[in-house]
Design brief:
The structure holds 2 protein chains of 2 kinds. Chain A has 2 domains: 29-145 and 289-365, Response regulator (Rossmann fold, 3-Layer(aba) Sandwich), CATH 3.40.50; 148-273, Response regulator (Rossmann fold), CATH 3.40.50.2300. Chain A contains 12 helices and 14 strands. Chain A has helices spanning 3-17, 42-61, 81-94, 106-118, 147-160, 174-186, 208-215, 230-240, 256-262, 289-303, 309-328, 332-340; strands at 29-35, 70-76, 99-101, 122-125, 140-142, 165-171, 193-200, 221-225, 247-249, 270-273, 345-346, 351-352, 368-373, 376-379. In chain A, the strands form 4 sheets. In chain A, strands 2-1-3-4-5 form a 5-stranded parallel β-sheet, sandwiched between helices. In chain A, strands 7-6-8-9 form a 4-stranded parallel β-sheet, with helices on both faces. In chain A, helix 6 (174-186) links the parallel strand 6 and strand 7 (193-200). In chain A, helix 5 packs across helix 6 and helix 11 packs across helix 12. By secondary structure, chain B is mainly alpha-helical. Chain B has one domain (3-293): ABC transporter involved in vitamin B12 uptake, BtuC (Orthogonal Bundle). In chain B, 74% of the residues lie in helices and 2% in strands. Chain B has 12 helices and 2 strands, in the order ααααββαααααααα. The longest helix of chain B is centred in the first third of the chain and has 32 residues, at 3-34. The chains are: A alpha/beta, B mainly alpha. At the A-B interface, helix 2, strand 7, helix 7, helix 8 and helix 9 of A face helix 1 and helix 10 of B.
Chain lengths: 382, 296
């Protein structure tokens, strides 16, 4: 090619690919999100995506985080760890995001944990499994309560009722597997013996055979650990067989849609959940009450649907990140340290206090034990 | 195992088995008339469920189901007319790939129209916890509705294929398309009709089964795989065989759960399929001679 033409072509291509220099405004901060908006974990990802969009709008209307406009990029992983991995790489390498919020599920988080750590990109997961933060990776945090705490709280309640033999059902997802391990580890501490331990497929549509196996066992209570509609299907099948022993669920049950789907079978199900669902029943002295009610009202006004504790995880992640950036500016290492030293942050999922050894920041008291009565979530009265 | 418990496992098995059987029947209808395996069959079942749930909000339940069946039949016919009819050289492989593409298309349209949530029709009789006792086992009344619908569908299909002119013409198409055309059978229209029928049957099944299994935009895929397995087991093209194979497979799966960990349920199904295909490749209930004459 003739030199002049080559020079013109080169100049044009440089101009085309370079970002236009920002005018007087401070630089944008790009935040990536890996959420399971569709697929079996859609009850987690969809409210999370909506919450992040709402918060981004709110924050940009105020002029951004410390004057930096937020550019939110949400990638729908469909709950698939493989997609989460490929989108994570895309967000880190191509979009050069400042931090990643998500993924929504434990299986996906475990798949991207090493990638984020290696790329030294802050990852604030919205998933439950304890293994996400144990062993601690310096750039990986999580805002959802730990599955081990949920299990311990459930076992406490079982012990109070004198239950010593239980049947455990879990789905074959990362969440289910991690929960199953925690359950097996913690049960002996509460004097509880697992007499039946079954795993079902995450897309299962009928669990009558498993419920029949339960009927033939001498379990005094059932503990189910999954995040899919199978939660409702299992309860239904159990009650249809005339089995009336108590059914406990994980905090994955915290969406009223599961209750509606199970109809009267959901009555009396016991499970731990963050306080968002029962914000009104809290005493005014509770430190979380104001924050919970504000989020719930804003979400319901904007989207016209019930707020969900899962969306709350996203709220916490976004606000914690924003707080850290406001404190120290757009320096990755400084923001990571600021996040790690956050104390007493009142969020949707609980009151967070992080430390170098605790990247979850929540304890067992972030949960409230709830039950279903007349199709609504109410605190478990004792 | 006590008799009560064994009976309960049997009932659970019949419940799933009937679900597999109806999907398999849909595969058989299309296969009989055209030699194509229509992998969009699972989506027809899903559409039946989804459309009837949406319609049930505005019209009474039976009308909603009827509307869903008609609408899905129209979709089935549309799939055939728009995607398959214009193939110049219709090899089986090409048609299978196109139907897989159609299934993906239908799934994404369902996602766009209805979102990602799960839905179901209300139980036809009773609710989520009603159960009737039957010789010591307990089952939901909805199971009777499913089994009843399956029996009705099989009976109606038998009558159609054996006693009506249209049914004879479809069997003629299945036996030898060119000879049938020479006899004045409107082959192209019957192919469209077979898709519409398979879609209608799938839709009815989807509606009746939705209280038990819930339905969502992605429900079609796993159903199609199980239904296809059962159709092969029973012998492709044999509706009675599909029902027997479906119920049989459901019962085997259910009893497998009683001895093996439940996680191995699918392993049992697929091992059985492989074993049958090795010993009797044409399926359990197909006649070996007739099978040798078919292409597939």
């Amino acid at each position: 090619m003739r030199p002049v033409r080559l020079a013109v072509l080169a100049t044009l291509s440089v101009l085309a690919t370079s970002r236009p220099a920002a005018a007087a405004a401070a630089e944008e901060v790009t935040i990536g999100a890996l959420l399971s908006v569709t697929g079996p974990a859609a009850f987690l990802g969809a409210p999370e995506a909506r919450t992040l969009e709402m918060l981004t709008e709110q924050v940009n209307a105020r002029g951004g985080i410390a004057g930096h406009r937020v550019r939110l990029i949400v990638k729908d992983t469909g709950g698939s760890p493989e997609k989460a991995v490929s989108f994570a790489k895309q967000l880190i390498d191509e979009e050069k995001v400042f931090a990643i919020l998500g993924p929504s599920t434990s299986g996906e988080t475990m798949a991207v944990k090493a990638i984020a750590e290696e790329a030294r990109t802050l990852l604030i997961s919205l998933a439950a499994a304890e293994v996400i933060v144990n062993p601690v990776a310096s750039n990986v945090f999580k805002t959802a309560q730990k599955d081990s705490h949920a299990a311990a709280l459930i076992f406490q309640d079982m012990k109070k009722r004198g239950i010593t033999r239980i049947a455990v059902f879990s789905s074959n997802t990362g969440f289910g597997k991690a929960g199953k391990e925690q359950i097996a580890k913690l049960a002996p501490d509460f004097g509880i013996q697992i007499v039946l331990d079954e795993v079902y497929d995450k897309a299962a549509t009928d669990l009558s055979a498993e419920a029949t196996k339960l009927k033939g066992s001498n379990a005094q209570a059932v503990l189910n650990w999954s995040i899919e509609p199978a939660q409702s299907i299992l309860v239904k099948n159990i009650r249809q067989l005339g089995i009336s022993i108590p059914v406990y669920q994980s905090h994955g049950f915290g969406n009223l849609a599961y209750v509606k789907a199970a109809g009267p079978a959901a009555e009396g199900v016991i499970f731990p959940l963050g306080r968002l669902a029962v914000a009104d029943a809290l005493p005014a002295s509770n430190p979380q009450k104001a924050v919970l009610v504000a989020y719930r009202d804003a979400y319901q006004k904007k989207f016209g649907e019930e707020v969900s504790g899962f969306g709350g995880y996203a709220w916490d992640a976004f606000q914690l990140l924003a707080l850290a950036i406001e404190k120290v500016g757009l320096d990755r290492a400084k923001v990571r340290s600021a996040l790690e030293s956050t104390q007493g942050f009142v969020g949707q999922s609980g009151v967070f206090t992080f430390s170098p050894t605790d990247h979850n920041g929540l304890g067992m008291d972030s949960f409230e034990m709830l039950t279903v009565k007349n199709g609504r979530f109410v605190p478990l009265g004792n | 195992m006590s008799l009560d418990l064994a009976l309960q496992y049997l009932v659970a098995g019949l419940t799933y088995g009937s679900i597999y059987a109806v999907v398999a029947i849909g595969f058989n209808i299309v296969y009989s008339a055209t030699g194509i395996i229509n992998f969009a069959q699972g989506e027809f079942v899903m559409l039946g469920g989804m459309i009837s749930v949406s319609m049930a909000r505005v019209v009474p339940l039976p009308v909603a189901i009827a509307a869903a069946v008609l609408a899905t039949a129209a979709v089935g016919a549309l799939v055939e007319v728009a995607l398959l009819r214009w193939l110049g050289k219709p090899t089986i492989l090409r048609m299978v790939v196109i139907t897989i593409g159609a299934s993906i298309l239908l799934r994404e349209v369902a996602l766009a129209l209805w979102g990602e949530g799960v839905r179901s029709l209300p139980y036809f009789t009773g609710d989520e916890v009603t159960s009737v006792g039957l010789l010591g086992a307990r089952l939901s009344p909805q199971v009777f509705w499913v089994l009843g619908s399956v029996a009705l569908m099989v009976a109606a299909l038998e009558w159609f294929y054996r006693r009506t002119l249209l049914g004879w013409e479809m069997r003629a198409c299945a036996a030898n398309k060119d000879a049938a055309a020479l006899c004045g059978v409107p082959v192209r229209r019957l192919v469209t009709l077979s898709f519409a029928m398979a879609a209608a049957i799938g839709a009815l099944a989807g509606a009746v089964v939705s209280p038990i299994t819930y339905t969502s935009y992605a429900a079609g895929g796993p159903l199609a795989i199980k239904g296809f397995t059962v159709a092969i087991l029973g012998g492709l093209g044999n509706s009675g065989g599909a029902v027997a194979a479906g119920l049989g497979l459901g019962v085997v799966e259910s009893f497998a759960v009683s001895v093996l960990p439940a996680a191995y349920k699918d392993v049992v199904t697929l091992t059985l399929l492989l074993a049958v295909l090795v010993v009797r490749p044409s399926g359990l209930f197909a006649s070996g001679e007739a099978a040798r004459l078919k292409e597939f």
